[in-house]
């Protein structure tokens, strides 16, 4: 018997509660795939070399060169600096922090679905357990006790419980992984913003004030 046949057989034995759990599992897979694609695309845009070039130019007060570097690359950190420079006359630090906040919000998009699945799947499994055992009790006391039906009800209860726990465990691992990645991204953005602020301060000490920079119109 192939694995697909075994899964279908267990799915049928699990009772009607298996359908909403299958829907939860499908939603979780969609979210996981979406988050994997998002993080892969984000990392593919990061360029440490371009970041170093921009930092050096920023520290020297060569703001036009920094602007050109941020224009030529889609690195999220360079975009963060570009957003700050576009508000150089008002509050570049606030602009960079707002950009970072928006990026972090995007990194956590749809993770609430995984969190819901992790909580709801075991509860649905518990519901399936209760329903299966209640079905088994319907045959207790019957003169013609159907042992197979009683065991079938117990099997339904155990399968539903196992399915709920399995879905929760499978979702918990990627959920914690994505949360960790967001935490690391938050730390890197904070370090980047603070470093850029110090470099801009160093440039100002040498007579190059970022507040005097006017972003070219695109």
* Biggest sheet statistics: none
Instruction: Give the terminus-to-terminus CA distance.
Output: 64 Å
Structural category: mainly alpha
Helix and strand sequence: HHHHHHHH
Q: Give the number of helices.
A: 8
Radius of gyration: 28 Å
Can you tell me the overall shape? Answer: rod-shaped
Count of extended strands: 0
Rounded mean pLDDT score: 87
What portion of residues is helical? over 70%
**Low-confidence spans:** none
Q: How big a fraction of the residues is strand?
A: under 5%
* Count of discrete structural domains: 1
Overview features:
218 residues; mainly alpha; 8 helices
Structural topology:
Elements: H1 3-13, H2 18-45, H3 48-59, H4 63-71, H5 76-85, H6 92-107, H7 111-137, H8 147-205
Helix pairs in contact: 2-7, 2-8, 3-4, 3-8, 4-5, 5-6, 6-8, 7-8
In short:
The protein is an all-alpha fold and 218 residues long. It has helices at 3-13, 18-45, 48-59, 63-71, 76-85, 92-107, 111-137, 147-205. It has one domain (3-83, 114-207).
What does this structure look like?
- By secondary structure, this protein is mainly alpha-helical.
- It has one domain.
- The protein has eight helices and no strands.
- α2 runs parallel beside α8, α3 packs parallel to α8 and α7 packs antiparallel against α8.
- It starts with a helix and ends in a 13-residue tail after the last helix.
- The mean pLDDT is 87.
């Amino acid at each position: 018997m192939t694995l697909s046949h075994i899964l279908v057989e267990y799915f049928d034995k699990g009772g009607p509660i298996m359908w909403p759990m299958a829907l939860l599992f499908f939603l979780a897979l969609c979210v996981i795939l979406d988050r994997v694609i998002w993080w892969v695309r984000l990392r593919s845009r990061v360029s440490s070399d371009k970041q170093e070039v921009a930092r050096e130019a920023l520290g020297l007060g060569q703001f036009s060169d920094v602007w050109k570097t941020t224009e030529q690359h889609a690195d999220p950190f360079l975009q963060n600096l570009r957003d700050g420079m576009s508000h150089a006359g008002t509050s570049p630090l606030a602009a960079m922090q707002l950009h970072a906040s928006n990026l972090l919000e995007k990194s956590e998009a749809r993770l609430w679905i995984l969190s819901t699945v992790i909580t709801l799947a075991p509860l649905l499994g518990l519901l399936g357990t209760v329903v299966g055992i209640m079905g088994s009790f319907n045959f207790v006391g019957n003169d013609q006790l159907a042992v197979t039906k009683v065991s079938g009800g117990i099997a339904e209860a155990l399968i539903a419980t196992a399915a709920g726990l399995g879905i929760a465990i499978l979702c918990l691992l990627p959920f914690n992984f994505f949360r960790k990645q967001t935490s690391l991204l938050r730390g890197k953005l904070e370090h980047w913003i603070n470093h850029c602020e110090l470099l801009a301060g160093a440039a100002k000490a040498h007579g190059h004030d970022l507040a005097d920079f006017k972003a070219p119109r695109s």
